[in-house]
Design brief:
Tetracycline Repressor, domain 2; UbiA_prenyltransferase; 13 helices; globular; transmembrane; 0% strand; UbiA_sf; mainly alpha; 4-hydroxybenzoate polyprenyltransferase
């Protein structure tokens, strides 16, 4: 009996790790975009707004985990062909399809409960529902449509801003939305470029991500340059807008230095073929990117709250 019990413990631990891995809590860092409206609206020290933003963050974290599970279920066969995805629980068989569906349902139920108990339940339904529909359409076949698939992925970041704004009763600036859209499109384009480079370098089949058959590295390099230019331009225009000057003063424009540096660093990484990881993982691993983000955050916090 003792031997059987001892053998069961590693299996239980392995299954628990698989469940955590498929939920991807490390990807919740993306939901920091939900807190951006709180930060920029001078309400970071307001307890009610802080509580509402935390609810929105938790709601969207659970919802996005459900989407990650859906993605893994849909892509489990093609993931087996990719070196960096073949170790995912559903791809390697560590996690059964039945248990994955149970986890997906649990995440959706928990998100629905948190959203319904919030003071902005209607907004959770609207933006959460839109996010869910976009991802269902994405997995149903739109991820195979070149260019459009990048817009669909990047739209998730804009939805996060809209939900975060609704949670604290604020109307987001057009420039904040536009800058968010352009920087997220840049991140997605960089990821596609590195996926394609990896496939070509290692001689992998395009069936692991069929949409890449419609791209070339030269085309994606141009897309990255355009997205980087638009990101820098829109942020500069945001800094010079009446909205920003009225709220933060003219010295806010100096924050653009850190944005330009961070964008150029990301472009450099993609050109060197070192950005094949998810953008969130890349940001956490690259010291220069981390420093530029921390300096930007610190400077903006000083301007807004100093």
């Amino acid at each position: 009996m003792e031997d059987g019990s001892a053998a069961a413990k590693p299996e239980t631990a392995s299954l628990l790790r698989a469940c955590i891995q498929v939920v991807r809590p490390h990807q919740w860092v993306k939901n920091i975009f939900i807190l951006a409206p709180l930060f920029f609206s001078h309400q970071l020290l307001n307890w009610e707004s802080l509580q509402a933003s935390a609810q929105a963050f938790l709601f969207f974290s659970l919802l996005s985990s459900a989407v990650y599970i859906l993605n893994d279920i849909t892509d489990r066969k093609s993931d087996r062909l990719a070196p960096n995805k073949s170790k995912r629980p559903l791809a390697n068989g560590t996690l059964s399809l039945t248990l994955a569906l149970c986890l997906l349902t649990a995440c959706l139920a928990a998100a629905a409960l948190i959203g319904s108990l919030s003071d902005f339940a209607k907004d959770c339904l609207i933006w959460g529902g839109l996010y869910g529909l976009i991802n269902i359409a994405y997995n149903a076949g739109m991820k195979q449509i070149p260019i459009l698939e990048k817009f669909l992925v990047s739209s998730g970041y804009v939805i996060r801003i809209l939900l975060g704004s609704a949670a604290i009763g604020q109307t987001p600036s057009f420039w904040i939305l536009f800058t968010t859209a352009s920087v997220s499109f840049l991140l997605v384009a960089g990821k596609r470029r590195d996926d394609l480079a990896m496939i070509e370098r290692e001689g992998l089949p395009l069936s692991m991500r069929p949409v890449l058959a419609h791209y070339s590295r030269a085309f994606l390099d141009q897309v990255i340059m355009i997205a980087a230019s638009v990101t820098i331009m829109t942020y500069l225009l945001f800094c010079m807008s009446d909205y920003a000057i009225h709220r933060y003063g003219e010295s806010f424009a100096f924050s653009a230095v850190f944005v330009v540096f961070g964008v150029l660093r990301y472009v450099q990484i993609t050109q060197l073929g070192r950005g094949a990881d998810a953008p969130t993982t890349l940001v956490m691993q690259d010291g220069i990117l981390r420093i530029s983000i921390l300096l930007w955050s610190g400077y903006v916090a000083y301007i807004a709250y100093g």
